[in-house]
Amino acid sequence: MPRERPTATVTATATPAPTLLVTGANGQVGFELGRSLAPLGRVIALDRGHCDLADIGQLRGVIRHFAPDVIVNAAAYTAVDKAEIDSDLAFAINGTAPGVLAEEASALGALLVHYSTDYVFDGTKDDAYTETDTPAPISAYGRSKLAGETAVLHGEASALVLRTSWVFGSHGNNFARTMLRLGCDRDRLRVVADQFGAPTPAALVADVTAHIVARHWIFGSPSAFPGGIYHLTASGATSWHAYALEVLRLAAALGVTLKVDPARVEPIGTDDYPLPARRPANSRLATAKLSRTFGIHLPAWQDGLHAVMPELVSQLPRS
Predict the structure, then answer these.
(1) Is the pTM of this model over 0.85?
(2) 220/248: higher pLDDT
(3) Which CATH number is 19-174+199-235+285-299's, of 2.40.240.10, 3.40.50.720, 3.30.499.10, 1.10.260.40?
(4) Do the beta carbons of residue 145 and residue 120 sit within 8 Å?
(5) Domain residues of the chain, as ranges?
(6) 10 Å Cβ neighbour count for 298?
(7) Exposure string for 186-220, b = 16+ CB within 10 A, e = fewer
(8) Which of 119, 141, 230, 243 is catalytic?
(9) What pLDDT was estimated at residue 17?
(10) Is 129 a catalytic residue?
């Protein structure tokens, strides 16, 4: 008789699901991160009430308590005009707190993903800004966000800074929602036409974040993670005025009865609509580095707006 071949029993050891901690859970991007990161592990999404970035002691305590494998900082002080007179708080949340997160991430060996903004640039460049262009913020908000970038990247944590612009979504306040509301309430609108950027869906920012975390952290080697600054916006560019017209066009196509006629949406210059904080005239961000490094295709900004508009319309008050 042939001899029986020896057999062995192999016991598989399951790898514990990673813990991903999200700050700013009630913000536009934070809200979407709860969805996009869920397949990757245990997501702990904290709002300001449970994780206030202005309270450094609480912030350190929260990070040490949960000991996450990944920290995604979607919290920020975003009141651009108010920051001009409330700069101390803006810098505490946008500048100091990200540095603390970097320190805690380094101690844990965790990945830190932090979001920044087109406002770190002065907007005077003719072409889209690249990651190697020198920042020159022209507002307190922009300076506070640049301080946060510097704190994160000068730390020892494995860290990624994603700069984005003109974020919108179905959750929270944003330009698209405002234009939809005003278009229903007013018979005339005046919208700035000499500032340009790429309206970027919060869902796109969250989905790209999840893709990067999954590909280069959860399933890859942390030591090989290609950190640094990356620009993340939808493809293409438009002005605030043209953006408003597209919002109204889509709303009308979805059956919304608008009070304003598109012909009465007046294009104006920045100087015709003065605000406490200066805005960059050019907010276009080049995204080739992100696409090249992570193999990501970024859809046109119109695609994201088309996807979000039905939900924004459904949220309109019923008459």
Answers:
(1) yes
(2) 248
(3) 3.40.50.720
(4) yes
(5) 19-174+199-235+285-299
(6) 20
(7) eeebebbbebbbbbbbbbbbbbbbbebbbebbbee
(8) 141
(9) 84
(10) no
